[in-house]
Amino acid sequence: RMETDCNAMELPSNTEFEEDSDYRDFEGTDVKDMRLEAEAVVNDVLFAVSNMFVSKTLPCAEDVAYINVETRERNRYCLELTEAGLRVVAYDFDQTDDRLQTPYHETVYSLLDSLSPAYREVFGNALLQRLEALKKESQS
């Protein structure tokens, strides 16, 4: 029989990294790995764009990741994902343009909604189909 006096939430989440210099700056902070965040973003909306993937050539870090997206209109973008949100950093895959001053979007949905009318249509239709399915379920 195992007993413990502390629950897991009380333990610091970064104990195994305390000696690792790369993680020392993050001690005691709640850090998200942006690559994992980026993968989740891609999986969420891939069905509504022509192509979307996390960049393998631009560096991902704890605080930034880059996502390449090609809309159904065949426009290509490189998106930067940070705590501030998502923004377009270039008009091609695996690029960044420091001169580009585009606004941050809180969600990938609002960003793609502003870039791609076809995304808006596909996403809206998927939403309608889901609502219809839920309606049928509740009636049976």
From TrEMBL:
<dbReference type="GO" id="GO:0005737">
    <property type="term" value="C:cytoplasm"/>
</dbReference>
<protein>
    <submittedName>
        <fullName>GSKIP protein</fullName>
    </submittedName>
</protein>
<dbReference type="GO" id="GO:0051018">
    <property type="term" value="F:protein kinase A binding"/>
</dbReference>
<comment type="similarity">
    <text>Belongs to the GSKIP family.</text>
</comment>
<dbReference type="InterPro" id="IPR023231">
    <property type="entry name" value="GSKIP_dom_sf"/>
</dbReference>
<feature type="domain" description="GSKIP">
    <location>
        <begin position="34"/>
        <end position="134"/>
    </location>
</feature>
<dbReference type="GO" id="GO:0060828">
    <property type="term" value="P:regulation of canonical Wnt signaling pathway"/>
</dbReference>
<dbReference type="Pfam" id="PF05303">
    <property type="entry name" value="GSKIP_dom"/>
</dbReference>
<dbReference type="GO" id="GO:0019207">
    <property type="term" value="F:kinase regulator activity"/>
</dbReference>
<dbReference type="InterPro" id="IPR037395">
    <property type="entry name" value="GSKIP"/>
</dbReference>
<dbReference type="InterPro" id="IPR007967">
    <property type="entry name" value="GSKIP_dom"/>
</dbReference>
